[in-house]
Specification:
two-stranded antiparallel sheet; mainly alpha; Serine Threonine Protein Phosphatase 5, Tetratricopeptide repeat; disordered N terminus; 3 domains; 212 residues; 2 strands; elongated
Amino acid sequence: MFASLQPDRHGRRNLASTPLCTVLVIGLSLSASAAMGAGGGGGGGGGGGGTQTQKHPPAGSQTGSRANDLTTCEPGQVWDVKHHRCLQRRSGILPDAEITEYAYALAKADRYQEAIDVLDLLQNPNTPRALNYRGYATRKLGRTDEGISYYLKSVTLDPAYPQVREYLGEAYVIQGKFDLAKDQLATIEKLCGKECEYYQDLSEALEQAHAL
């Protein structure tokens, strides 16, 4: 700048070049700012720019609403509630309690034979819940007598288990044994009252059969 103001014979040319230099400097500054905004500034959520690495869920895992659906696994797999993923079905892969509830979820999704296959994985298949769910799946496959046999075993182990009494009563309704079904209804009323869902469901089954 000082050189451009000296009164020499090139003074006219130097003064004329000063605005051009200023424009170039400003232009370079704006370009650098834009580059920083596009690169470093854009990484605000990830810590100062650079390439963001996308994280993918582990293989077999489920995300979103599917993570809450126990029946998303394919046949031959079981649902791991703790890690929200499907595992290959085999004995001992999960605790009995989780296996039992997964089997029931399958049965409620009309996957009855799969439910029975899953119950076969249990270390102890002779619990009230496991026997009840096995009875439910078996009955839904049309083997009502066999289903009743599992229900009765469950009732023997836990007489105060109202759900198995509902299912047992419904099986009796199917067979036309309405008096036996009403006996189960009366027991359910003693266990949890008429507002209990098990009482209401069995009562509805009897009403539909015109037995009430």
